[in-house]
Amino acid sequence: MKPKMTQQQNNSNMQNANKGTNGVNKQYVQNQGNRGKQLNPNNKK
Fold first, then answer.
1. Mean pLDDT value across residues 19-41
2. How far apart are CA 20 and CA 9, in angstroms?
3. pLDDT averaged over the chain?
4. Residue 45 confidence (pLDDT)
5. How many degrees, rounded to 5, is the angle at CA 8 between CA 20 and CA 39?
């Protein structure tokens, strides 16, 4: 079982792109996906 992630760890993962490595954080990917949806001018409010 995975250990619980704290709010502070989650917040830092959302800002960490892991540049220079093969992978990315799950939280980072989800955050960028949500950001893209919000910034898309074709989205209706």
1. 79
2. 20
3. 79
4. 65
5. 65
